[in-house]
Write a structure and sequence with these properties.
481 residues; binds 5-hydroxymethyl-3,4-dihydroxypiperidine
Length: 481
């Protein structure tokens, strides 16, 4: 700790003394396909990410999730690491393709792995926070239609049932989906995530069928006795580049619908946004929504997970010459197919950026958390289920990783959560993304988000300075020191 910049040490000390609500959860998050490896061991079969990674050019460097960071074999060591960091909770996902390979029969070895993980966590005093779907659909299900098929929602409910049957006696917190924006629009319209489809109709079907899968699975979990069932959304503040420009205002409205409201409104209000339905008229969306679907989708949530990385500065005009744009625009251009000929662009605001080229604006997190409460009166308790930053890390000769920028990112965003709470937002936990460096999807292993560095040759784990600071922060916040 002594080699940390004085300003960061002071900031960490000040954060510890903010009035964190009793029982506030401090955790970290990962996802199965990003860390487990053992891609085809003990009965696991292809997920869409195994298949997508084999498509030439789909993933940077041709990186695959086959080995990842070998968490499947190093799980006890990783849980010991979590314990040493003082984590109160660990958010992980289960792999459908490991538990029900090809969605045919239950693979006991797959279930056993998660059962051992849960036992290990509980033994270490760490609360397990389970996500059922973090993007790794069994490839066989994709070949039968994937999320464009309504049947996949029913299969997902059955898979949820299976996982609950094995772990429901010990896991209290159940998240159905992680970031359906990515697993529908980015995956089926933009083609940049598995399965790599480029079809507006399929993407819209994926949106609704994932909502339906959530509703069916949440209902089944509750019937089986689950007490804490929720979903995690990746939300953003859509900021019109020029508040006086009609085209920018309209682009921000459309972007806000696709990134935020087409998830929030069905879940919290039992309807799809009118303006979105108008924008996609003619693409068959309304025919996908059957009687009873929205009632199932909008059954009360016990919590809403919010993943926040950046805001989006939105314009309805072509980028000015020389403006490289906000790099996330390559993802966000997913919005464009739904809005006719007019483009949505993301002009630079001159803010600092992370290694993903994402803008850094910590106050955006405070703004998002407080405005959700204002816009949705029946909002359930919120948990920040992901927040973090990728940077190029270097190990010093002394074996340390002085990730000053990531440390600053974490301190500033945790401060922003404290500000939101002070303004009345009901936020009950914060999970840093990510515990370990891992497989960053189509960006492969080049983007490191971990508070723990992983040497991809030796798989040795080394806690970075950001991990040391986070650990000190949460230990003291927990004890009120
Ligand atoms: O790595 C991802 C994670 O799987 C989902 N949320 C965003 C992270 C960083 O891109």
């Amino acid at each position: 700790m002594t080699s940390l910049p004085a300003k960061q040490l002071e900031q960490a000390a000040a954060l510890r003394s903010r009035p964190w609500p009793a029982g506030f959860l401090w955790g970290s998050a990962t996802a199965a396909a990003q860390i487990e490896g053992a891609g085809h061991e003990d009965g696991k079969e292809d997920s869409i990410w195994d298949a997508f990674a084999r498509v030439p050019g789909a993933v940077v460097n041709g990186d695959t999730p086959e080995v990842a960071v070998d968490h499947y074999h190093r799980m006890p060591e990783d849980v010991a690491l979590m314990k040493s960091l003082g984590l109160g909770s660990y958010r992980f996902s289960t792999s459908w393709a490991r538990i029900k390979p090809g969605d045919r029969t239950v693979n006991q070895a797959g279930l056993d792995f998660y059962s051992r993980l849960v036992d290990e966590l509980l033994g270490a005093g760490i609360l397990p926070w389970l996500t059922l779907y973090h993007w790794d659909l069994p490839q066989a299900v994709e070949e039968q239609g994937g999320w464009a098929s309504r049947d996949t929602a029913h299969r997902f409910r059955d898979y949820a049932d299976t996982v609950y049957g094995a772990l429901g006696d010990r896991v209290q917190h159940w998240t159905t989906f992680n970031e359906p924006f990515c697993s529908s629009l980015l995956s089926y319209a933009a083609g940049i995530h598995a399965p790599g489809r480029i079809s507006r109709e399929d993407a819209l079907a994926a949106v609704h069928h994932q909502h339906l899968g959530h509703g069916l699975a949440a209902g089944a979990l509750r019937e089986l006795g689950a007490g804490n069932v929720g979903i995690t959304l990746n939300l953003s503040n859509a900021i019109p580049a020029d508040l006086t420009d009609e085209a920018d205002l309209d682009a921000a409205r459309r972007f806000d619908a696709l990134q935020n409201r087409i998830y929030l409104e069905p879940l919290l209000l039992g309807r799809y946004p009118e303006d979105f339905l108008h924008d996609v008229a003619g693409l068959g969306f309304e025919q996908l929504v059957h009687d009873g679907d929205l009632a199932a989708i909008s059954a009360p949530l016990d919590f809403l997970g919010v993943n926040y990385y950046h805001d989006d500065n939105v314009s309805g005009h072509p980028l000015p010459e020389g403006d490289p744009g906000f790099a996330a625009a390559t993802d966000r251009e997913v919005a464009s197919p739904f809005v006719g000929s007019e483009h949505i662009t993301f002009p630079t605001r001159g803010l600092p950026r992370t290694g993903m080229d994402w803008e850094i604006n910590p106050d955006g997190l405070r703004h998002l958390l407080t405005r959700l409460g204002a816009e949705y009166p029946d909002l359930p308790p919120l948990y920040v289920t992901e927040n973090g930053a990728a940077y190029d890390d270097e190990i010093t000769a002394g074996g340390r990783i002085h990730d000053v920028e990531r440390t600053q990112f974490v301190l500033d965003h945790v401060g922003s959560v404290a500000d939101a709470i002070a303004e009345g937002a009901d936020v009950r936990g914060y999970f840093l993304w990510s515990l370990l460096d891992n497989y960053e999807w189509a960006w492969g292993y080049g983007k490191r988000f971990g508070m723990v560095h992983v040497d991809y040759e030796t798989l040795v784990r080394t806690v970075k300075d950001s991990g040391l600071v986070y650990s000190s922060l949460i230990r003291n916040a927990l004890t009120g020191a």
